[in-house]
Amino acid sequence: MRVAVGSDDLYDIVEFIVEKLKERGIEVIKIGALKEGKYY
Fold first, then answer.
1. Are 6 and 37 within 8 A, CB to CB?
2. CA distance readout (Å), 4 to 15, 27, 33
3. What is the value of pTM for the model shown?
């Protein structure tokens, strides 16, 4: 399964969610600030 996760800012909770999804074997596609590694 693949899931796209995006945010307009870099929040700790979003990274936490991404890691939990990965632990469950879900492929995560980062978009927005998560992909770029910078704030918008």
1. no
2. 13, 9, 13
3. 0.80
